[in-house]
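User: I'm putting together notes for a lab meeting next week and I want to include a structural view of one of the chains we've been expressing. I don't have a solved structure, so I'd like a prediction I can at least talk through. The sequence is below, exactly as it appears in our construct file.
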Amino acid sequence: MVNVSLAGPELDYDEQVTFVGQSFRIVRIGTSGDVEHAVETVREWLPEVQAFAITGLREAQAAGLLGDRDDGAIDRVRRAAGATPVTDGTRMDDVLQEWAIRHVHTDMPGYFSNARTVVLGDHDDHARTVQVLREHTQNIEFADPHQRFEVPTVLTSNPAVSTAVKLSLLPYRFVPGLIKQQVEAPTHWASRALARRAARDCDVLVGSYTEVAEFGVEDLAGKTLVSNAISDERLEELASRGVDMVIDATPQPFSVTIVAATLEAMMLATSDDGHEPSNDERLAMFEASGLEPRVLHPNGPKRKSRFVFVIHPLSREFIAMQEPLGLLTKPPGMGSVVEKAVAYVPPFVYSHVTGITSPTGAEAEGWLITVGGTPKQLLSHSPEFTYDKLLRAADMATKLGAQIMGLGAFTKVVGDAGVTVARKAPLPVTTGNSYSASGALWAAHDAVRKLGLAEADEHGRLRGKAMVVGATGAIGSVCARLLALATDELWMVSPETAKLLALKTSILAENPRAEIHLAETPGEHLADMDLIVTATSAAGQKVLDIMNVKPGCVITDVARPLDLSAEDVAKRPDVLVIESGEIELPGLVRMGNIGLPPKVAYACLAETVVLALEGRYETFTVGRNIEWEKVKEIYQLGLKHGMKLATISGVNGVFTEDDFARVREAALASRAATTQADG
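Assistant: Thanks for the context. Below is the predicted structure for the 679-residue chain, given as structure tokens.
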């Protein structure tokens, strides 16, 4: 079998190999765009050859070896082969391209979801790849300006238009090549510029190695290249440019690098009558040979995922801190006007999040999209108002290439808590409530340990009383289930009496030894609690009277906006009030200000990041009910990917060791004073 290539001779070989149980001599001869030399080479080898592979037109054109475009070059070389079986590998390429994409999708589901993809070169050369990728993403751009504006589709869809265009172009065929090059040069330059710009932000690049060079694409760091016939030398060069993954659609069973046409020619040579094998026959030969597309990681295995997280301003004061909006809020009475107006602002990207790197090597990048309205404004409108904004944000997320979207703060509370949005959005959605519940107890346990006033056994179980205010809510109900296992006595508080009774029954079915009490309001029971979790959707309304809380109590405020104001917290220096759920993200994280220290994120955001790092592009947590199993699972996945409980913070910022000591001393003093007064 001889592969006569119009490309250069750098990959030439003459090897003895075995394929599908038969011995072959395979030869490659590059002719560097010299069509006459290619024709003579075919004629020279005719007496010895069972099949020819005629290739390299695209590579020769991309490398400028052919000068003026010559679409008839392959046909001229083919005719020289006479009756000897000959192939250019087109059908084999189609099979291998589709197989390669499906192979990766099977091993890594969701890998191509919404992937920002740039296709280099002629669309026909990558048509099957594009066709299969469209099953997973619509974010596909073409470097060829004709493909970018769908000119071929327009021409071929109307036979009359197609014929008219062909007739009008007849005179152009007789224009000298030098003049053609001068006419086409601006278009070629613009095409290269567009390709380079699009490639900077893309996730997947489709093209041959030669096309990557032709279009001058330099920024390959972190990208996936879908290509073919990648030699060891080329793979090494791609590695030096930071490519994450190379999908080589052409299996490489030999010590030399071959193209698809070579495999097809070998199949033709094994046929008694030289007939072209069907796709089924091709696949059967591949299966018999144990061949499959190559998925190469030139810089080591890694996976980079993309997410979007939806945020909104938590208060009018937060809007006032953002310029230039802050200037508009300064005149008397304008604060409320601006707050109302901002609620109608279309979703926009607030921050690009980069640098998240798991200890496993997985990476994630994302975008924070804000929907504008404060909790007060979101509650003043119908749920459909917020649904519409979130679905518009989901459309933005899809175009950005996100594979999963998380809902933050009040966007996950409004209406049916994400169910409608998850059903209608074009990508998976999670509210993050599973990790919020986990983070709440994680922070509470750590704070109780640091304060050192409540007794605990060797397993960390609290020898005291705990309370969950808002126990029937999404996060509160899971916190109640966890605390029923981790404390001697649990009080569950909510005005929804029927739900409380059902929750108690459910918890006792899982943990019959739990001691559980129910109440509509915290009231007089506050004074006995060692740990309190507030998880309401009260939106600033008073949830509990902090003056009635036991000295040394740890209050974990899970609600967003917070259930306890800074003024309330200041009244009790002997009580530790923490804002629960903050998680430190792994890596050198760069993210816009969300009111937390650098690298620190709310647990609902962290859940979205964890799912992205794990490659779990699924609707994980939505609705009012949270599955206990998912709370445990997301906690374990978080540990796997390097998530840490952030430095515990309160309404006034991060708590230091001195802060813990000061609260402890104040609590002990308050308890001593109470004991003395009772005595």
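A couple of points you could mention at the meeting. Residues 177-201 form the longest helix (25 residues). The first strand starts at residue 2 and ends at 5.

User: Perfect, that's what I needed.
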